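sorry for the late reply, my laptop died twice this morning and i had to redo everyting from scratch. anyway the thing you sent over, i finally got around to it. pasting the sequence first so we're on the same page, its 480 residues, then the predicted structure underneath. double check i copied it right bc i was rushing
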Amino acid sequence: MRWLPRTLYGQLLVTLLLGLLLANAVGIALVLNDRDRLTRTLRAEYVAQHLADVINLLDEVPASSRAKMVGALSSPAAQVSIDHHWIRSEESGKTETLVFCQLIRENLEYPFAVQVLSFREDSPEVARDVMRPYSDPSRYFYLPGKQLLVDVLPRSDGDNEPESEFKVQLATVQAQLRDGTVVTFRVGQVATPEEPPWRVTAWLFLVALVAAVLSAWAVRRLTRPLAVFSQAASGLATNLDQPPLPETGTVEVANSSRAFNRMQKELQRYVKNRSQILAGVSHDMRLPITRIRLRLEQLPDGKHKQAIERDLGEMDQLIGDTLAYLRGGTSGEVSVLLHIDALLEGAIEDVEAMGGVVRLNSEPVKPLQVKPQSMRRCVGNLLENARRYGGDKMDVRLREHNGQLSLLVRDYGPGIAEGDIERVFEPYVRLESSRARHTGGSGLGLAIARAIARDHGGDILLYNHPMGGLCAMLTIPVRR
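ok and here's the structure:
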């Protein structure tokens, strides 16, 4: 489902809003259906009550006065007649006629014989040429077996088409009084005009809008701690001394914040203890080397003395590289605003002093926040790695794009196998057989460079150039 948002907040909000829309749509349909059914029921009950009252009244009136009473009770909407005989109709057995007949009987004072010959409600429309204006009662009429549509209020623009129309509910009912007189009713009850349910729709829309706003607020409030945890966890990799999370909110959020702060304190304690151990190891390991060098000074010059001094130098370099790798960029150095292009030029001068030929392609870069000594070592390791294993010639490119600083170092050596690209970042891994004829370094240069890059929030990637040689890409986010 690609159309769903990727964030937890977006997915929860979309799910809740779709549920609210579906629930309100079903609610509107049910409300309108119930309102229509209630309107029809009340209209039928009103007509049934009226007919029962007329039947009760005519039964109490003497037979000699019924003709005048019938004339007085007749109207365009309800015609009453005592001139018809009892009729047998096939429609009297239908469900709607039986229900309407039962409604009439419930309001009678005596169990008169009652039958509903026809009861039509909202039947199909009548042709336009038989419509008559409802405002003229003398022209009121009925069509046998059909629904009567009555037009009212002609359009103000003079058009012959009506502006609105009312449906009429037709019922033909017969009742036999106690003296045998048959009373026939033809009722045309004007139905309520069907208007768009704006009030109900607007009310339900308002309820949905309020519920959507509250849902958005609630989802944002519940998911915000996850975003805070994500930011804190991301920042923890580069800054162990960041401010602790506030231990507020719900019980679960407060407990999670408390656990996260406790983990951060444990990591700070671990790094501090490791730094102290590294400082002790550095002192304890270099002290014997210093004593050996002092004693070598008392020996006469010779090839054995030079070999021992060379071995001591390699041991000292190995100790320094190992300690730098174990620190992993957490040397406690403070970040400052630094001209990275000036730092790069200094590192290039060091490589050129050792015989390297560097072609620099640099764009103007504003000062950015870095740890100067660590970054100088990272850049120097990349340049030295390219000179040592790829030959003296190399290309260097520096640029800033979309908030990222990128430094590309390309050598013109044989490159490395694809399966070894990540392996060379492991400590003490060297590929001398595939990249150079004689060994060099401790195998920690790239590991230290990547640790420093990641300490700055970036990374180092290696890939073989299509035209030959190995490319090392250093990227770090720009902070100013």
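The first strand starts at residue 78 and ends at 81.
thats about all i looked at so far, will dig more tmrw
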